[in-house]
Protein 1
Amino acid sequence: MKMMLIANSVASSYSARRRVVIRKALAADCDLTAVETEYRGHATELAAQAAAEGFDVVVVLAGDGTLNEAACGLVGTKTALAPLPGGSTNVYAQAIGVPLDPVDAASVLIQSLESESTTRIGVGKVNDRHFLFHCGVGFDAAVIRQVEKYGSLKRHAAHPIYVLAAFDTWFRGYDRKEPAFDIELSDGETIEGAYFAIVHKMAPYTYLGHRPINVDRTANLHTPLALTVFTKCDVITLLGSAASAMGSGRFLRGRKGVQRRSDLEQFVIRGRKPFPRQVDGDDLGDTMRLDVQHIPDAITLVTPTTLHD
């Protein structure tokens, strides 16, 4: 088996010792090429190169941002994608049942490859960027942007920083006076006056430590997109929704000002003013329009054998 290991040397869980252990384990039965990312977007280039050269699998030892980049390079190819958690949260790896310790995860990966435990999945796409598990628009993306300002501190205290960034964005970093965008669904319906929205391709939306935050539980590897739209941006709606996402979800399902749609193949988000957007935790800057679509049968994903139990 021909394998490329893409690693992000500055990822939170990355260390020289783990790198050596993981490389030795993967190289035991594979023709392994190990590379490290050097700049933003590099993982996309490396993964696309691997696919063009006939590699069987691309393994990504990094966080969700680098994993997203690699996935973008593999869409529409036969080369499989395998995540090894190396970031601060590792949403996608956790969601599919990969152990959070990278060495343990490498052992599980080897078992998965031996048993040919893979599945063909769809992904989301906004304009020209694909995403694996979610796209955040408006307030959600503004929080991600604020988190990025903390730089390397995120590696050591990611979850407290996300909470701090959410409050900082609420009070100082996001215009809540007027809605930012409207959403036009393919059936002709328009959701008007949205402050922020989350497009889901997987559940949960994220994790607080090991605790899943489920904004919409209907999305999974093999469904089209789900959409949660906030047409109210008051403190009760936001804090109640956050608490609900960590619990039963009842508040989210019944709250006025929170609209939900599922099984969506495509829709358009039109800005009333420039609005921020992020995919899989990666800030993509501001825009006035997003064309959102589901891309079926996009990537072969290596999954833990327990996912199929």
Note: The first helix runs from residue 16 to 27.
Protein 2
Amino acid sequence: MMRSLYTAATGMIAQQLQIDVTSNNIANVNTIGYKKGRAEFADLMYQTMQYAGAATSSTTMSPTGMDVGLGVRPTSIQKMFTQGNFKETGNDLDMVISGNGFFQIQMPDGTTAYSRNGSFKLDGNGTVVTSDGYPLIPQLVIPADSTKVSIAQDGTVSVLQAGQTALQQIGQIETASFVNPAGLHALGDNNYVNTTASGDAIVGVPGLEGRGGLRQGFVEMSNVQLVEEMTDLITGQRAYEANSKAILTSDEMLGIVNQLKK
């Protein structure tokens, strides 16, 4: 059987993955804190028909070899943690991290997840939580009589309570950074967990040790660029069509061979 059939099939599978990743990016173009994925590929092993440097006579050698590639395979889907655009909301509990870092979120099972989504809310107890009701770490409780919440760039949280004229500090927000954020495992819902590849979280005050400072009243939008994604979509589609054409061509060539006896 012709190698080209299997080689082109690997190309179609690879381009389908490219389209899947691009489609997910486009679907999340307005998702707060979303980081786009990038599919990466590598060529498969080669079948060597002649080695470079093989002797062609007693005094000469082949300057090049004959290596036939066997296709392509996906190697990774990497999250790109470039900064997204900021959108002003005016909400006192909305925050963005201007630079590196993640908010720490306590999951229902007690583990810690990490997120770039800084759209926070209050639950019935005044605790600052995510849209799913998961509390921020360290836990932050806003007094019920607070009329204003102020969050400094270093994460210091102060409130103005009814009947008071001065702000009172009530807590400190800490953020986490990683040596290799691309190694984080995505859970969905804008949450990640650390892995061996990402390394352990380095927790501390925002604005220090390479962590970005906080900005109150803003949210970070997706870093997806629609023009780039549409270009990737077209490129993936055309590459898929080209690989399918290669399969059709190989099939036609096999059909010609089968007709030789006639």
Note: Residues 44 and 55 are 27 Å apart (CA to CA).
